[in-house]
Design brief:
about 575 residues, alpha+beta, 5-stranded antiparallel β-sheet, disordered N terminus
């Protein structure tokens, strides 16, 4: 089924907001992009799905089942495959909201103790407009360094994101949040983990193709998408649909094409869109729209560029390899053995791995605010790590899953959910549980994922990855492998050091040209950015120089400034 055909999910039918003025009521935001429910649904009890993905490992979950669970035990729905969310109205005085175990589908509510009536919403922008909220400067500082948010903060004071696995209920003007308890499980041996993960993935992919025979695999030259293909029996690969987006400097197309030819896969390849044909006005319109869909809390320039590239591909059901990073120790460096950590470790991780690619360039924000923001952001990274436990590597796994994945990848998935259905089998709660129960040593250097590859399909496991050896080399490392890995780590850190010393960052594919066109639009229409001059933390001289053509701005800076224009627009959603 395509997104618009899924029962209970209306493409574009968001954001919704619910206010607690004594009686809960449906209140569709005033926006021309939105589809309405219909009078009969607004005037009676009803459940609404807020995601096109409604499934477990074994397949699609019927909407009648979702409706029944929302009536009695909404917490059971948190185990559905991310991104999932639903809202239910019961009579005139009660609304319930539930999201998946990762909090991948972004939902929002008023913070405890916030002034005014309680609010639940599928949009932080709508919630902030309803509450009359200003900017949260700690969240702004975090975003100026990370490009995304930490924890449950939003850009707006008094507006919070619903926690992973939580259930929110608005009843008689009172908002209650039932938080999910953190699971604690015994460790798994790597052999048991490989066996269980292989069984789960084979079951998941078989059910997915049964439900969606025309689903398209997003195939790259990396390991994660190869694992998904490997979980599909060879007999079902001929005629399977796959797509690859060609990015300059990447070997994805060559490797994906070779794999597709080997198994008779129907492989479609497209390059980045020709952004030279995009007018500055259209670049600004697309970036504004992207910012609104991201609730101004991730990179709208990157999303707009991706949207242009996606126009070349048919939309529908996609199979994505997102989630493999959780099982390989994304933030691991050095020798992986259990150890404690301090705030200095957190600051080092933040400075060398997290505050590099998407940070705003120096001079765009005032020096005073930048220094203050960095100190607060480092503390928030440390607090996020501490919530994940006292052992360093397990804490970094938790940081990646519950913060970067939730607030960066989840925001993007939420933003595109009305355009296409993206299914991420490795975000299955069962797969995440397996990854969490592994020792960090077993996840390091992709050993677990490589062994999983060899269990699923040894032939594909012997094919080299893009710019890296074949998975078999990671599954069964030689005596020299640690030395080679150490050299690779040193090389990566050297690149990061140079990038940091040059105070540069890596723009997203297509982002540099699109950002330049947005800036060109601002120069021709300076009234668009007039509101930025009212923000105390903006360095006014930098903005004047950029508008005069005396200074260019990096895509990361353009992304934050675009988000600020949308977030502070008095209309809340107009941004134009």
């Amino acid at each position: 089924m395509r997104t618009s055909e899924l029962p209970g999910f209306v493409a574009g039918a968001e954001p919704l907001r619910f206010t607690g003025l004594g009686r809960a009521h449906w209140d569709i935001a005033d926006d021309s992009r939105l589809a309405t429910w219909g009078a009969e649904q607004r005037s009676s009890s009803a459940t609404m799905l807020l995601s096109p993905v409604v499934r477990r490992t074994a397949g699609v979950v019927e909407t009648s089942t979702v409706d029944q669970e929302m009536r009695s035990h909404p917490e059971t729905l948190t185990s559905l495959l991310p991104p999932f969310a639903a809202m239910r109205r019961d009579g005139d005085d009660s609304v319930t909201m539930v999201a998946d175990s990762m909090g991948f589908r972004q939902l929002y509510h008023s913070a405890p103790g916030a002034q005014g009536p309680p609010i639940m919403s599928s949009s932080a922008l709508v919630a902030a407009r309803e509450a009359g909220s200003g900017l949260d400067e700690v969240a702004l500082g975090n975003q100026s360094l990370l490009g995304w948010q930490l924890g449950q903060r939003t850009l707006f004071e008094g507006v919070r994101k619903l926690e992973p696995g939580a259930v929110a209920r608005l009843h008689d003007g009172v908002l209650e949040i039932a938080q999910a308890a953190r699971a604690s499980h015994d460790e798994l041996t790597i052999q048991d983990a490989v066996r269980q993960a292989a069984e789960l993935m084979r079951t998941s992919l078989a059910a997915l193709l049964d439900d969606h025979p025309d689903a398209v695999l997003q195939l790259t030259g990396g390991l994660d998408s190869r694992l998904l293909l490997s979980a599909i029996p060879v007999s079902r690969r001929r005629g399977l649909r796959a797509m690859t987006l060609g990015v300059p400097g990447s070997g994805d197309v060559a490797i994906a094409s070779e794999i597709s030819a080997r198994y008779g896969i129907d492989h479609e390849v497209r390059g980045l869109a020709d952004l030279a044909e995009v007018s500055p006005a259209d670049a600004w319109m697309l970036s504004c729209d992207a910012s609104r869909r991201l609730d101004a809390m991730s990179d709208p320039i990157a999303l707009a560029a991706l949207g242009l590239a996606e126009q070349a591909f048919p939309q529908g059901v996609r199979i994505s390899g997102l989630g493999g990073e959780v099982a390989r120790g994304f933030y691991y460096t050095g020798r992986v053995t259990d150890r404690m950590y301090t705030r200095k470790d957190a600051a080092r991780l933040a400075g060398w791995r997290m505050f590099v690619n998407d940070a705003v360039e120096p001079g765009v924000l005032t020096a005073e605010f930048s220094a203050w923001a960095r100190g607060h952001a480092e503390q928030e990274v440390y607090d996020a790590l501490a919530a994940g436990g006292a052992e360093w590597f397990r804490a970094t796994d938790d940081l990646y899953l519950r913060h970067r994945m939730q607030r960066w990848a989840g925001a993007t998935d939420t933003a595109v959910s009305t355009q296409r259905t993206v299914i991420n089998p490795m975000l299955d709660s069962g797969f995440l549980d397996i990854a969490a129960r592994l020792k960090p040593h077993d996840k390091a250097q992709s050993r677990f994922l490589a062994l999983l590859q060899m269990e699923l399909d040894p032939d594909l496991g012997r094919m080299p990855l893009d710019g890296r050896p074949a998975p078999v080399a990671y599954a069964h490392p030689s005596a020299l492998r640690p030395i080679a890995q150490g050299a690779a780590t040193a090389k990566r850190f050297t690149k990061k050091a140079v990038q940091r010393l040059r105070r540069g960052n890596r723009p997203p594919a297509g982002g540099e040209l699109l950002a330049a066109k947005v800036l060109e639009h601002w120069r021709a229409n300076p009234g668009v950015v007039a509101g930025l001059f009212d923000l105390a933390f903006i360095e006014k001289n930098a903005l004047v120089e950029a508008l005069a053509g005396d200074r260019e701005l990096r895509p990361s800076s353009m992304a934050l400034l675009t988000n600020l224009i949308v977030a502070t627009d008095p209309g809340g959603l107009s941004g134009q």
